[in-house]
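As the work plan foresaw, our protein records have gained a structure token line. A representative record is set out beneath this paragraph:
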Amino acid sequence: MDQQPSGREEYVRKVLEAYRNTPGTCGNLRRPDRMLAVQLYQRGVPLLAVENALVLAAVRRLIRPADAPPLTTVRSLAYFMPVIEEVIEIEVGEAYFQYARQKLQRLRSS
């Protein structure tokens, strides 16, 4: 979780790095992922909003009933767009996302 990057390339790199490191993703980057990251930059979407959305989506994917069928691996940054839009629109304090990050850490280590 960093401050807003200084330029487009740094922003795109950090978005793609955050996506690649999100649990449940395949870890591979494709051209459409890069193009979407550029579009997010052009829209002025804060990096923190993207990072928060990835954390929130990962926690939601991990907290499921034990008898639920397994989810498939996420293969595109576009999968997260509804949650990115949700995070942009909701008015939730940063403490909520810090809690989500802690929850994600606990879920990953168990």
Q: What stands out?
A: The chain has a mean pLDDT of 91. Residues 8-109 form one domain. The chain is about 60% helix and 0% strand. The radius of gyration is 14 Å.
